[in-house]
Structure formats: C-alpha cells, structure tokens
Design goal:
This protein has a single domain, classed as Rossmann fold (3-Layer(aba) Sandwich). The chain is built from four helices and four strands, in the order E-H-E-H-E-H-E-H. With about 120 residues, it is an alpha/beta fold. About 25% of the residues are buried.
Length: about 120
C-alpha cells in the first residue's frame, strides 16, 4: 500500500494547513491514491506521527513531496535527515523523496496568472 505525504514547513497560524489539505484532497481524487499532509515543524500533523499512523495501517511505501518553492536548508538537509531516521525505524518501508513543488514549470504559470489578475 502506498501513500503520498505532502510535507510543508508548518506554521503557528491556525489556517496554515488549509491549502496543503486541498492539494492532498485533489491529488487523492486525480491520482486515485491516498494522500495526507504533514508538517516539518511548528504545528501538527508532524511527519513522524503521520508516518507512524500510516505504517500502522499497513502502508509500506511513502512518497514524500516537499511542498516548498525552492531547495533551501529544510529541503537540502533537514528533510533528508528525517527520511533517514524514518528508514531506520521502519526498515521494511520504502521512502521516495520527490523534487520540490517549485521545480515544476506550472509554478511559473500560476505566478503569471496571479500577477496578471492585478494588472
């Protein structure tokens, strides 16, 4: 069983997960795969907790997508370290780390669309 984990930074704002939840719901519908959200820090649901819950439900393949615009310290260092810790804990699970959201050419299109609406 596979699950996609949309991993964002996290925020103390109570509405910070709304966009990530919408993306996960859309991904689930369009790709017919379970998608969940997780945060790296500051607010739940935290990555470790999400992985533990899904693992206990039988998931053995985790596709982790960093919902970040660029490859800063979190993406280059912190997330890979977290994934390595998870691999040690869940030795029979597979972890696939995708590229960041910002690597998609669609980000350019979205920015153009948003800015165009202000012109």
């Amino acid at each position: 069983m596979k699950v996609v984990v949309i991993l964002s930074h996290g925020s103390r704002s109570k509405n910070s997960n709304l966009l990530t939840e919408k993306v996960a719901e859309s991904l689930s519908r369009e790709l017919n795969i379970k998608a969940v959200i997780a945060n790296l820090q500051l607010s739940p649901p935290y990555l470790e907790e999400v992985i533990e819950k899904a693992y206990n439900e039988g998931v053995r393949c985790f596709i982790v997508h960093p919902f970040f615009l660029h490859k800063g310290v979190h993406v280059e260092e912190d997330i890979p370290k977290e994934i390595e810790k998870l691999k040690e804990t869940y030795k029979d699970a597979e972890f696939i780390l995708t590229d960041v959201t910002g690597s998609s050419s669609f980000v350019h299109t979205a920015v153009c669309h948003i800015v165009r609406s202000c012109l």
